[in-house]
Amino acid sequence: MKRFLVGAAVVLALAATLPALLKLEYYYVLGYTVLQFIIMATAWNILGGFAGYVNFGSGAFFAVGAYTAVSLYKWLELSLGLQILAGAAAAGLLGLGVGLLTLRLRGIFFSIATIAITIILETVVLNWTYVGGAKGLPILRPTAIPLFENYTQWLFFVMAAIAVVAIAAARYIQSSWFGRGLRAIRDNEGAAECSGVPTLKLKLVAATISGSLMGAAGAPYAMLGSFIEPNSAFSLNHAVNALAMPIIGGTAHWIGPVIGAVLLGSVQQIVTVTVSSEMNVLVVGVLLVVFVVAAPEGILGLVKRWRASSK
Amino acid sequence: MASLLEVKDLSKKFGGFTALDGVSVDVAKGERFGLIGPNGSGKTTLINCVSGVLDNDGGRIVFGGEEISRLPAYQRTRRGIARSFQIPRPFTSMSVLENLVVPLEYVVHRGSLHIADTGAEAMQILRGIGLADKADTPSNQLSQVELRKLELARAMAARPQLLISDEAMAGLSANEVSEVLEILFKLNADGITVIMIEHVMQAVMKFSQRVICLDAGKIICEGTPASIVQNPDVQRAYLGA
Question: S-S: A45 plus which of A14, A49, B67, B111, CB 3.0-4.6 Å?
């Protein structure tokens, strides 16, 4: 626990002091993107990895966070912190709602519903003129932020803070009775229920936490590009990345999604810059297929096997 | 003796198929109760209804004086009904010890987790059942007999009043059968009521004080083990005479 707290403090201190060393704004956009991947993958893994309930609609949770933040910013000029809290709350409620409707049933129903919810919500936003509808909405960022040279550096720091919160949550869940209950559900839901695990409650709590973290990851999204439009906010890429990164990193441990996100996030950025932005989607797809076939337990599973064989 | 479990006029249908048809059973506190019948006669459906894995269509299930037939399974476990599964269902991502920690955390020590030493308690149960040396083994690496023992150990970790053992002995060797039987006798001696579903007749005969035989969703006979095997209906339906 102590080590983790020290690590978290070091990460945040680095994120805060980095602007003194590194000036080019592009690096912060890059860092922001990787941090966003880390949060999304970690959030997805709380329900998908620990409990075994696959969410195909991460884009919906992300966009609900983003559009909640944008609409509140336009309406009340809420500060970024409050926007993030509101985005997290809205996406958490969405998780709870979808969960209430589908998690009574075991298996695939939740996954199907998450696909449907993405399409429904995107249609709603496409027709919601207050936030720009299909045209999108340009946003004027607040100008000055104390301690930070520009708003992008500030956003980078905020994302680092959310990532620390997300990882801390995943880490706590994993080692607690709550996480053990989720694993019991994934291993065998019937046996879990007969061992006294209130499976529905646990799944609902996990869906709420997972959804709210995705909402938090989406809330600052419009601020980064000073613009938001439904196509990119609801993009299927969010869903594919949030699912591919934990699977490639390894779903059994909280570090798995982080490894997957850092690796895939960096590779995607490099491919986008050096090859083309279409290719980066291909990279995710190919890697996902390779890992599902060759290493279903992800990089963590490979490391475990390698350690066991070298003993 | 006071009854611990009363099943009254229980019925369960799967579509057009009647799996249970007006089954009534009373199990007394501390009793060793045997449940036999041919495949498909409704034995597992009956205990699925009692343990809450399935909802019954008609009838009542009363446990310790309380109607429980609309409670979810985990609530019934918390009230004192634990079961093993016919096909073992270990939590495969966990070690043997951790499998037992789940019911200890979710049933026994709810609300007192900060002071409970669930690991030590799980170890004690494993010692009692002869799995102590496998405590740290991943549960997907166990042999058949070890899996059966794990099923019983995990059920025991919920500290039940009533233990339902669903074919814990199927496919085991004679030595292993007597090993599992010994465990069940010991649990019963500690005051736990045991319902045994079994095809291994010698085990049922030896273990049960009272036996019922199900056939096609109905009770066709009830009595002592000795009287059951003499019953012509049981011989025709089940024993293959």
Answer: A49
Among A194, A251, A253, the residue to mutate for chain B (most B Cβ within 10 A): A194
CA nearest neighbour of B149 among B168, B122, B172, B173: B168
pLDDT tens readout for residues A74-109: 999 889 999 999 999 999 999 999 999 999 887 788
pTM of structure = 0.92
Q: Is residue A267 part of a domain?
A: no
Interface test with A, best of B49, B54, B92, B93 (most A CBs within 10 A): B93
| pLDDT tens, residue by residue, B152-186 | 999 999 999 999 999 988 888 888 899 899 999 99
Question: Per-residue pLDDT tens for A145-169?
Answer: 877 888 999 999 999 999 999 999 9
B contact set with A (CB within 8 A):
51-53, 72-74, 77-78, 82-83, 85, 89-94, 98, 101-103, 105-107, 113, 154, 157-158
Contacts with B86 from chain A: Cβ below 8 Å: none
Spell out the domains of chain B, with CATH numbers in brackets. 3-239 (3.40.50.300)
The whole domain housing A83 covers: 21-236
Residue by residue, DSSP assigns A76-124 as H---HHHHHHHHHHHHHHHHHHHHHHHTTS-TTHHHHHHHHHHHHHHHH
Task: Say whether residue A182 is in contact with chain B using an 8 A CB cutoff.
Answer: no
Q: What's the rounded Cα separation, in Å, for the pair B143 and B173?
A: 13
CA pair distance A37, B40, nearest whole angstrom: 51
Q: How far is A185 from chain B (nearest CA, A)?
A: 8
How far apart are alpha carbons B172 and A165 in whole angstroms? 50
Residue A109 inside a domain? The answer is yes
Q: What is the complex's ipTM, to 2 decimals?
A: 0.91
| DSSP percent split of chain B into helix, strand, coil, nearest 5 | 40, 25, 35
Distance, first Cα to last Cα, chain A: 28
Q: Which residue of B has its CA nearest to A50?
A: B93
The domain total for chain A is 1
Inter-chain contacts counted by CB atoms under 8 A, chains A and B: 79
C-alpha A159/C-alpha A39 separation (Å) is 8
A130, part of any domain? yes
Q: Which of B77, B92, B105 sits opposite A187 (nearest CB)?
A: B92
Question: Between β-strands A137-138 and B17-28, what pairing exists: parallel, antiparallel or unpaired?
Answer: unpaired
Nearest-neighbour CA in chain B from A177: distance (Å): 7
> Is position A303 within any domain?
no
